[in-house]
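User: Could you check the structure of this?
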Amino acid sequence: MTTTVRFFAAAAEAAGTNTTQVDAETLGGLQAALLDAHGPEFERVLARCSTLVDGVRTEDPATPLGPGVVVDILPPFAGG
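Assistant: Sure, the predicted structure tokens are below.
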């Protein structure tokens, strides 16, 4: 299943893109694929990020991903 991943701010900079497509059945599988694709700098940034699956924050690697799911990778933001 292909999942759309959107990166924001420092996550986009570390990934070298604002969006990508990943084939993964779970959030854990998606994160592993992203780490393989983008390397150690991305891993450092990802560790500080929030992950939203279709707009709902989750950190559970067992979260299932289905067709048309959008995952947002959001680093902490300053300000308010």
